[in-house]
Design brief:
Radius of gyration: 21 Å
Shape: globular
Strand content: under 5%
Structural class: mainly alpha
Largest sheet: 2 strands, antiparallel
Number of strands: 2
Order of helices and strands: HHHHHHEEHH
Number of helices: 8
Length: about 200
């Protein structure tokens, strides 16, 4: 339930509102169409409110975890993403090694090495949590994005750029960088240390 869903609902509400307004000038015969449109608008508004409430509840409970501020210290990881990661992983100590967490999530290096990764959407692997992979994917794209000429997360940006320079396709490089983000998350959470780029 990322920002994509919220934006989609907002766009649909706006489209339907416009359509309903334009329909109001039609003859009485169009009134049934207007009623249907208003019904759909109400459904979308309800869904939007439910999504907003769910996001609020997720963040509220995630704040109870000591991992929450640690994850937020990683540039590119926002509140909802941190909440999703905490909710899906639960206790980081279930995973004695980074490799086990990576395998659990379904971001094994074999997925993206040698340029063999093929994808038409955000799907990465059939194993692990789809929600967790999507959260990591979104956090990764946010991390390597430049704001005012500077990347959100220099460490991940450099890693992503390195993969692209090696000739990796965009999504292959993003998945590889998501793997690095996951290992970074594991490190700060397991060691109970805030993120910092080592000089």
């Amino acid at each position: 339930m990322g920002n994509h869903n919220q934006k989609w609902i907002d766009n649909k509400v706006e489209e339907l509102m416009t359509a309903a307004k334009e329909s109001l000038s039609y003859k009485i015969a169009q009134n049934s169409n207007v009623r249907v449109l208003k019904h759909y608008i109400q459904l979308l508004l309800t869904q939007r409110d439910i999504l907003k409430d769910l996001k609020t509840q997720m963040t509220k409970y995630a704040k109870l975890s000591s991992a929450f501020p640690l994850l937020l210290s990683i540039p590119g990881v926002r509140k909802l993403t941190a909440a999703s990661i905490i909710g899906e992983i639960g206790d980081i100590h279930r995973f004695p090694t980074t490799k086990q967490l990576v395998a659990y999530v379904g971001l094994d290096p074999s997925v993206y090495q040698s340029g063999r990764f093929k994808a038409t959407n955000n799907k990465i692997s059939k194993r692990g949590s789809t929600y967790l992979r999507k959260s990591l994917y979104q956090a990764t794209t946010a991390s390597v994005r430049k704001v005012k000429g500077k990347p959100n997360n220099q460490l991940l940006y450099d890693y992503y750029t390195q993969k692209r320079d090696q000739g990796k396709p965009y999504k292959v490089a993003i998945i590889a960088t998501a793997n690095k983000l996951l290992r970074t998350i594991y490190g700060v959470w397991k060691n109970n240390e805030f993120f910092e780029i080592k000089q």
